[in-house]
Amino acid sequence: MSHRDGGQRKLPRQALARRFLAGVLAAGLVLFTVLTAVELALDYRHEVALVAAGLDAVQRRSEGRLEALLRQDDAAAIRRTLADLLQHPSVAHVQVITRAGTSYEAGQPVQPWRDRVQRVVRLQDDSGLLGILEVEASTSAIKSHLFDRFLRRLGLLFVVAVALSLLVLRQFDRLVVRHLDAIAAQMRRSNALNLREPLRLARAPVDDEINGLLDAFTQLRRHLLHEIEIHEASDRSQAAENRLNLLALGALPQALLRVTPDGRVGWLNARAAALCAPEQGKPVGAPLWQLLPAVRGHAAQSVEALYLRARTLPGLQAGHVLLPDTAGVKVFAARAVALHDAGDEIAGVLLLLEEAEVLVMPA
Description:
This protein is of the alpha+beta class and 363 residues long. The chain is 50% helix and 21% strand. The two termini are 75 Å apart. The strands form two sheets. It has a five-stranded antiparallel β-sheet. Strands 2-1-4-3 form a four-stranded antiparallel β-sheet. The longest helix has 58 residues. A hairpin with a 5-residue loop joins β8 and β9. α1 packs antiparallel against α2 and α1 runs antiparallel to α3.
């Protein structure tokens, strides 16, 4: 979540419910497909076995009659017998080939071969082979019937899935989604002023996962409130300590200044303010070397030089500076030390000027 929207981005309603429902329906569809495929495969094997049993019955019933007709060489009777066999619901094609090569058939050969169930019988007597009987049945009707059953079940599943989806969405929204939305809305409105208020949901108290989540967020808000109170107390204590320190530093007889990294005065005590050039006006914010103009051309260094040395060299820097006075020039024992922030960057320089003596400048 980006900082630009302030954490206020709201997810589409029932997004969790829809993902949950999609997962359930996908798993249900896969399970339905596998179970239906197994059932249809078993049904197909059973139906094919029934067809094969029917062909075996036709074979046994017609075998003796056809042998007798072949011995009599009665072509018309053979054709009538084959036409009668074709009336059996399992038979799609029947053919007799005599030992002389004459072929009698009824029906149409089954294509493709994978849809064919076939029985081949040798017709013979004591004199030898009389002919070959071929009986074929088609499984295409079985496959069509099973496919129609699959489509009917799929349609029923669709109707049941739609009804179940509406019920699941409604129940999931009533039991989960609306409470999660309420918790999220209350957490988004949380601030230091209302953290003491407990989170509330429009539901009967039930010891479940939603109630556990509510308790967790309530404890989090209390923990945040406790941390805020600790920081506020620490800030108040630090502010009081800073005021005391400023009062103590302001009462020092030495001149004390805090100089910012760009060389401007950020704070000074009363003694330092008395040393300022009166024409500079308000001392805080003025450049250091304009506020305390050093006397040039003497051996003692200027305040500016001491400031720059403290910024570039570690540790306490000491020396003497000369500042103009109405009676002449005052010599100050000066000390400077760089102030660092938490990132070890220069946050300023602290200057301490202690008056040493007064030199009278020659006219």
